[in-house]
Every structure is written in structure tokens, then in C-alpha cells.
Please model this.
Amino acid sequence: MNAASLIPQFTGVILAVVAAPLLMGWVNQCRAWLQNRSGAGVLQPYRQIRKLFHKDAVIAANASPLFRLVPYVQFASMCLAAAIIPSLWTGLPFAVAADTIALVGLFATARVFLALAAMDIGTAFGSMGARREMLVGFLAEPALLMVFFTASLISHSTSLPIIVETLAHSRLGIYPSLAFAGVAFLMVLLAENARIPVDNPASHLELGMIHEAMVLEYSARHLALIEWSAALKLFNYSCIGLALFFPWGLATGAYNLQGMLLAIPLTGLKLVIVGFGLALIESLNAKMRIFRAPEFLTTAFLLAVLGLLVHLLLGG
Amino acid sequence: MTGHPMDLISVTALGCGWLAIGLLGLIRPRSTRWVAHGLFPFGALLATAITTFALVALAHPAETLILPLGLPNLHFHLRLDALSAVFLLLIGVTAAGVSIFSAGYFRAGEGTAPGLLALQYHVFLASMLFVVLANDPLSFISAWEIMTLSSYFLVTSQHRIPEIRHAGFVYLLIAHLGAICILLCFAVMRGSSPEFTFDAMRTVQLSTLWANCAFFLALLGFGAKAGLVPLHVWLPEAHPAAPSPVSALMSGVMLEIAVYGVLRTTFDLLHMQLWWWGIATLGLGLFTSLFGVVFAAVQTDMKRLLAYSSIENIGIIFMGVGLIITFQAFHMPLLAALALMATLYHSLNHAFSKSLLFLSTGSVLHATKERSLGKLGGLIHRMPWVAWLTLIGTLAIAGLPPMNGFVSEWLLLQSFLFTPGLPHNYINMLLPIGAAALALVAALAAYVMVKFYGVIFLGQPRESRLQEAHDCGRLERIGLLWLAACCVLLGIFPVPLLTELNGVGQELLGASLGDQLQHWWLLAPIAPERAAYSPAIFMLSTVALVGTVVLGVRLCYHGRVRKAAPWGCGFPQLTPRMQDTAEGFGQPIRQIFEPFFRLQRELPSPFDSSPHYRVQVEDHFWYTLYTPIGGLVRRISNLASGIQQGRISIYLLYSFLTLVALLALAL
Model:
């Protein structure tokens, strides 16, 4: 690990942190267009974050220090995840410290902390949101792990950059097992990022909300950090999906400036398409009742396991 | 082996020291000060010494010793090898934490007199130590039985309560069922050898049939102690009944001693391993872990919840054992060594974090006099020490990075990922499903732990008297700190300990990960490009990032904070009863995994003037397995009572007839 290899590492993380609200804004804007609204513009999440940072924080009188710590933990874990995910290039020295299993663990840690913070105030909404989030999580987490396992059986490694390099350089264009894994991953992405059909990010209807119920007591800079990390989470998941299933255009192998400069607009373009696709899915579907969410996620889990079995059946 | 077995002699002496401490308790059995402040800290000191000797012994070759005790020609044989040393380490570290906690915990007026309790407690510790050291069936079974009996007396220390007596009875019954199986297993493994020692068993070549018998008897016998389904029923009864430090020892150490028994018999005493043993153990472990975690999610008593969580972890450990057997049977020693590391590491992790959690429930119990989750809440404000240290244990049990539970789950998942190399197609297909189930169990464990921690420590206090709860005392705090520090250290620096554990792989499987663990900071068991995890860097970057974000926000923006009442959703008043109850938090799991439970529910009708809601979740196994067997036993004993006439002449007639029959047989 030398100093030169750290530069792309840090650049990648900073680009992810900066660009994440833009992706969120783009998805919201596309949704507005698809629903015949004019929308607030792609920069709206930045304005929102700026506004929240300027406000006075209002904290419930019986909040514990855990409540105030959690937004920082959230934001830090999403930054850490961004350091492992080859969103632009695969030369990530930090990826040695955490492989895909640790990445899933990292997402789980973030979720557990957010759920604990939601229970900290002791309101009806908080604990309900925590319960529902853990319900979504306990089915989505193994599904995500199985998706990673399918990919790592192909590449004989659990390190995400190595998986992506193998997939990017493979002679075989399409693995049938990855098709199953891809569908499962899309379902996990929707569930984990509180999108329709599992959750509706735009609604505060008590009967259905999950993520919003958990963060109801947060305000000002804490809320800004939480919203920012939610945007970063969506960005991370989108980049995982792109890297696993559409790895073209990523700068692989040793340090080469040309490939890296090319990778930035290419990834940007792919994210634009992903954002539009997400908005399309959200506009075409209705939100499910909360009791149906386990069925949706069980399907994702079974699809991911099926992908694993298909890989073994066809002999890889 | 030259010279005296110094480690073994010292450890034996320290074990006898525990016995002596126990006897000293009888001098002034009613004096809490003498027992708690005089004896328990001394016991903790001995435990730390044992830890040190265990660490030394890990690096040394095996030592043996013959004690001139026991029956003529059947002296007690002791042996200290790497496997014993690992479990000695487990006993030492856990006992040190629990003993120092107990010094502040036990007080007069709670059941058994403190002096007697100290005797039972230290006999319990010493017996577990001698189980691990035993090198012949006689001393093994003696220590094993003393372990069962002393823990039985500890469980029933409040024997005036009928439920506790019943819990003790169930425990004793199943423990003896297990002991019979273990005894039969030793009898089978003895074969035709004239000696009755483990050394002799190691040389016996059993036929496949007898090896099968021996393995499954061992699995049944040790499984009963470990709490494998369907022999788990004693665990959720006995753990809540016992005082918390005892639950901590039983769950944290005694269950792992059963794992030691399985490892010892399968890999050391038996000379062969068959692949289908591995699959059977794996399947049993898988079902046990899923069963345990699902039941833990619906519990409303905090100690019962932890007991079910122990069942889950034992299931995970047995999944590891199953993988070792499978790999070993297919002659893949390196992968077997990887699975062995995962199994041993998970045993250590479970010992430390589960005893930490049980101890903290003890502190909560003392502070609030309440065990039911439905009457706790908000304790993080009143008991900050206990709350923050418990958070570490909670994250560790939930298997979240960078805590220790994650390291062993990571190792186990890695072992699963290597199964496609097995030369057997069907097993190749089965094992990914095992990995999927393990992932599901791990995620469910996080659900359970959020429930456990959130309901007890977060939110608003559900009862007004919780406002008077006090934090734990200084000695209790040291005990909790010790175990929490072990959890964190094992989580962040796994490589040094794993390197030490290599000796066990060499000894049992003839292979170890030796050369793979080069860097102290990087866990790469097979090769860095295949799989690597560096908890130290992970932790360091997390802390650095959190610090940067906190600092950045503090520097750039104002720190104005206003305290206000939480938003009451438009209701005039926010009451603690609006929070989720323990039942409510478990409800989704109860619904999804309905076939697992036997549900009894009373729903009030809409016109009820005093509505009453009751839900009871029970175990199917009680009704489909234990009740019929109990009925059968009762019927047989009723039949047998027909020959009991209560008259001495009839009994003399029986003796006479028996003698005649025996004589007829002999002639």
C-alpha cells in the first residue's frame, strides 16, 4: 500500500459523498417527470441538507447519548462502504480490510444502530419503525449475502474489487446464475433503500412508513447527516449493482490515469440510467401492504439461493 | 517429553485451589462479607492464573500426569494438550469475569446461604476444569457428574419456588440421559482393549458399525448438555431459574464444555470420520440455530431470551463441527482446519459475550427486581455503565463487525464458500443452502438483540419505579468491563489468538493454517486475494471517520441544541405504554415462523367490559415428544407397581426366585 494508490481511494470516496445527493435528486426529478409534475430540480437534496445544517437541533428531552451518536455512525459507515465498492475503479487498497461479507456486516451494523436510535425516545412511531426496519433487514441481508456468494463462487474470491475484475475480464458474457442474482439484488436494493414497493420515501402515512418512522425525532444537522447517508446508501447500492452486473467501463488493473478519467463520465452515465430505471419502477408499482413485504423479500432470498444452485448445477 | 509436566501440575493445583476456596466458604456460611469480598475475588485471581497457564500450554506439547486417586488399577489420568488448553482458556477468562462480578452480586437472603453457594460455585468451576483435563473415562465421567450435580444445586438455589424446583428436575433428567449416552459411548470405544483410558481408545480400531454407534451416542450425550434440539428443553427453564452469574457460567462455559466433549471424541478418540456424520451434525446444528433464534425473538423474559439465543449459538457451533467432519472425511485437512478455527473461535466468543449479557441481566434484576421485558425500559439513563457495556455484548452476539462475533461468523461463511471443492455432487448442492440458513440466522440474531437491548435499556421506563434503579457496584463493573474488553480485543485482534489455536489443528487434524496468518493485522486464512478481513483497520477507519464527521460538523456549524418534549403524534400526552412491547416487537417473527410455535391466544371480544389479551407461545417438542414419553414412563411404572406388595415375605420370595433363576442360568 503506497501513497500513490491512496489518491484514487480517497478521490473515489469523496466523489461518492459529493455525488450521492445528486443521484437522489435525479431519481426524484425523474419521478416527478413521470408523474407529470415539474419537480424541484436535481439539486434539491443539496438545498435540503444545507437548510438542515443551519437550523437549531431540537432533541427530545429524554434522548440518550446514543441517539446523538447514531447519525455520525450512519454517515461514517456509509463512507466506509463507499471505500470498498469499486464504483469507478478497482484499485482500492482499503478493500483488503473488508470483503463482501464485511460489507454486508457493515450495512447491518448501520441498520442496527439506526433501529436502536429509533427506540431510544420511546415513541410509538420510533419503535414501530425499528421493528419494521429489522423485519426488512433480516430477510434482505441474507439475500444480499447470497448474491455476493454467487459472484464470489464465479471469481473464487470474496473481495469485491477482485470479483469485479474477474467479471469484467471474463470471456463468458453472461452467467445464468448472475441473472437470478441480479433480480434478487434489485429487490434487495428497493427494500434496503426504502423505495416503493416496500416503503415510500415521500410519504409520512403511519400505516406504511418504515424508514421515515425511525428518523421522525431527528432534526437539523442530525437529520441532514441521516438524509445524506440515506442518499449515500442508495448511491452505494447502485454502484454495487453496476459493478457486479454491468462492470464495463470501470478502470481495472494497475493505476492508469486515462482509464480513470474515462470511468468517471461512464459511471455517471450508467447512474443516470439506473436513476431513471428506479424512478420508472417506483412509478409503475404501488406500495405493498407492510405484511406483504416479507413475501417480497423471501422471493428475493429464494432467487438468490436459486442463483447459487444454478451456478453449482451448471458447474460454473 | 522430558522433565515434569509443570503446566499440568500448576493447573491441577489451581483447580484444587478452587475446591479449597469453596470449602473455606463453609467456615462462616452466613457472612456475606467473608464469602463475597474474601473468597470470590480470590477465585477470580486463580482464574486469571489458569488463563496464563492455558496460554503457555497452547504453545507446548501435550503433558500427562497420573494421580494416585480413584479405584485400584484405575487411577485418574490427566492430560493437557492444545485442545484442553483452548477450553481451559475459555474457563479461565470467563470465570475470572464472572467471579469478580459475583463478589459484588451475591447477597444474603436470596435462597441458599452465601457460604454454601460459594462451595457449589467453586466445585462447579473445578469440575469443569477437570472434565477438560481428564484422560480416562472414569475421571471424565466423575468430573462430568460433579459438574451436573453442582450446577443442579446452583440452579435450585431458590428451591422454595415450585417453578425453580421443576426447572431443576428437568435439567437433572436430561443431563442424566446425556450422561448415560456418554458412558455407553465410552464403553463402545473401549473395544477389546484391556485398559480403560483415553490413550488405549486412541489405538483401538473400531469397525464402521461400532464407530457409528460411538459417534451418535457421543452426539446425543454431549448434545443433551449443549442443548441441541430436541434435547434443548432444559435450557430455557434452568437459565432463568439460576442466579445470573450461574446462568453466565452455565451458558458461557458449560455448554462449550459439551462442545469440547464432541471434539475430543470425534477427532481424537475415534480414528475415522464419515462424511454423513458431518452432514447429520450440520443439519442438526442448522435446525437448532434457526429454532433457537426464532424462539428468542418471541420471548418476553430477558433471561429466557438469552437462553434461546444460547441454543442458537450452540447450533452455529455444531454447524462448524459438521463442516470439520465433512472436510476431514473427504481428506481436505486445510479446510477442516479453517472450520475448526471458526468453531473454536465461536465457542470463545459465545462464552465471553453471553456471560457478559447474563451478568448484565443480573445487574438489571438487582436494580429493578424485574425480569419481564414488558416492565423494563429506559435504563440507559439510570444505569449507564451496565447499558454501554451491554451494548458491546449485544453487538458481539448479533455478529456485527468489528466485534468478535463477526470474526467467527466470517470464518464459518468462508468455510462454507469452499465447499464446492468437495468431490460429492449432492453435498455440493446442499451446503450453499446451509450457508444461506446461517446468513438468515445471523440476521435474525440482530433482530433479537435489537429487541433485547432496545426494550430493556432504551425508550421510556415502562414502570414508574424504574426511576429509582441504580447502576451496578464497582466489583460488578470490573467483571462486566473484563468480559467486554475480551469481546472487543477478540474482535479487533483475532490473528494472534488464531495463530495460537493452530496447535489444535495440528493435533486433531494434522493440518493448520500456520503459514497463512502472516500479518498480525490481516485475517487471510487461505490467501489474501481469496478472502481477507482486517478488523484493526476496519475499526480504526470507523473511529477516524466518525471523529472526522463529528469534528467537521462541529467546526463548520453552530452547536445550538434545544431540548423539547418528543412529538406525541397529536395525542395530548405521550405515555410509556405507547411504545412497542416485547410481544409486539416479536410479532412479525411469530407470524412468519408460525409453524415453529404452539400458540395459545385469547382475544377479547369488542363488547368486553374488562378486555383481557393473553398470548402464550410454547414449544411443540413438549407436547409431541416429552409429554408422550412421560406418560409412557408413568404407565410402565404403574404396571411395575403391581409387584410391589409392601410385605417382607413377598420380597424375600422375589429374592429367592431370582437366586434360583440365576443358578439355573449358571448351570
The radius of gyration of chain B is 26 Å. The first strand of chain B starts at residue 63 and ends at 71. The mean pLDDT of chain B is 88.
